[in-house]
Predict the 3D structure of the following.
Amino acid sequence: MRPFEYARARDTGDAVARFRAGTMYLGGGTNLVDLMRLGVAEPDYLVDVSRLGADQIEPSGDGLLIGAAVRNSDLAAHPLVREGYPMLARAVLAGASGQVRNMATVGGNLLQRTRCSYFQDVSKPCNKRQPGSGCPAISGDHHSLAILGHSAGLNEAAQCVATHPSDMAVALAALDALVHITGPDGSRVVVMPGLHRLPGDEPDRDTVLRPGDLITAVELPPPLPGRSTYRKVRERASFAFALVSLAAALDVNGDGTVRGCRLALGGVAHVPWRAARAERTLTGAPATAEEFTRAADAELAEAEPLPRNGYKVTLARNLIVATLQELLP
Amino acid sequence: MGEITLRVNGTPRSLNVDSRTSLLDLLREHLGLTGSKNGCDHGQCGACTVLIDGRRANSCLALAVAQDGCDVTTVEGLAGEETLHPLQAAFIERDAFQCGYCTPGQLCSAAGMLDEAGPSAVTEDLASDPALTAEEIRERMSGNLCRCGAYVNIVAAVSEVAAAGGRAASDTAAAGASR
């Protein structure tokens, strides 16, 4: 690991004021320390933002304000989260292990990097880690990588088929959560899934954050009507990243038509993928398996699977249909 | 380098550490507490699990400089002077290990897990604080791998302590010893 300087920031202002080129903010460290050990991240200054007092969950209007330093385990165990936002509690519980959830913060969870094996191996080219070096995943092992919104069709220097690994972010995308950010130019709010960006021709940029920006809190709008959940399909039953996951909410009228729905997919793209086309297709339609399938197919019509991850298209469709059926009143 | 003060198994310690030092390396190399093991060094195997401020954590992913002011418990600090921790007694009673390399992490993880409230990924009713069935224990202990495959007996040992509210395993062990 390359030598670096460490400082514990006193408050948000102190953290942002300390930021200079080569600085990274440290939350729980569960991803960053690992990436530093792998040589993927090489900060020369770590500013610890885990003790700024942003570790509370409190009501905000009819919603909730979650401090960026709240530990993942505390978020999932909080009574108001379990009661009002089951898809979020389930998404967090579906991720990582008990130890990692105790360490990992909400802000850090949003900013974790892809687990693409080429990104994590400094002996391999990777456009995300080293822009312009190429993407070996496209002709190599991409079975767990993106089927939507990737840049495999662009020139070799821009190609990226990485997926965003967070489960929590998928639920936040479905919930229209607000990400509170403070940076050198002041404070602003970004609505999920707008924090993350598709690779385009800058696959090294995961998010819309600018240098020095610090996530201070995540705000949840009021709970959604109807029922919601999170389902995750993975290669083993626990402590594995999603092949495909789904945050889903369904609200059905008395006449059996869909009053509203929210759908976001994980494990399929560079971002938590809000399935807006499926939501539009379904709203007002009968809440039946046929219509659920039609909505899923509408969303997945724009999928561009690679040679060895086409199974994800079928998996995503079946997951959407099965989960919505499970949510029927 | 950074000067830090932390409590390890109840004893205050002040040390000067390189910022790159993990809590695991601090425990093993600086303090000679070699119970916590270095398995994968990536937070994936759980052999390095300790309790930080009472909560289980992967010490290989924790930078020592970031633990200033924390209270750390390792496997060496689980037991009393003369008595085993109920989990240690149950692991012996149930033969919950083979090579033993993952055991300190399993023990610290289970000790932390038994104090954690709330549902897990396999809990049906999110509003409940479910009983620790074998299925719940398997899910909650998934951050600890055992390459010898002693999982069946690990689950039995943890179940026994969970069912007894963290106590009767030592009674069971005592009863076993007196037979």
Observations:
- The longest strand of chain A covers residues 244-252.
- Residues 107 and 190 of chain A are 13 Å apart (CA to CA).
